[in-house]
Design a protein that fits this description.
Arc Repressor Mutant, subunit A; about 150 residues; about 55% helix
Amino acid sequence: MATMDIAADDLLKLERQLCFAMVTAARNVVSIYRPVLEPMGLTHPQYLVILALWEKSPRTLSELADELAMDPATASPLVKRLEAQGLIHRSRRADDERRLDIELTDKGQALREQALLVPGKVLARLGMSIDQVSEIRDAIKPFTGRFEPVA
């Protein structure tokens, strides 16, 4: 149905709002992950940090924040909590004190074995196949990067 065919009032219905659908879906997906990650001692945002570090470690705080599409000020407390859990180590570079390297500890690397079970558990909780989830993930990819404000 073309936009012109929808009455102006209908365009303002909550059920038609992309923002509402995305926020609700995100909240529901995180609630699905919560009990799966709990035995690992991780919150969903901490899990994302660890996933990024399994892909590449060490990383600077800035690189990590960029990868996760968040501000360094948001990533920093996550990193500090993961360090307190003994999963990562932060260190200043000798050649540039301004750069903070973040790398996994042996304990953080070992957690990967448990994490291998996470995708299967999430799929089971969703009642969906990997192909169905991949299709949804690919459909929302245009929304997963950072957007520049429109002037």
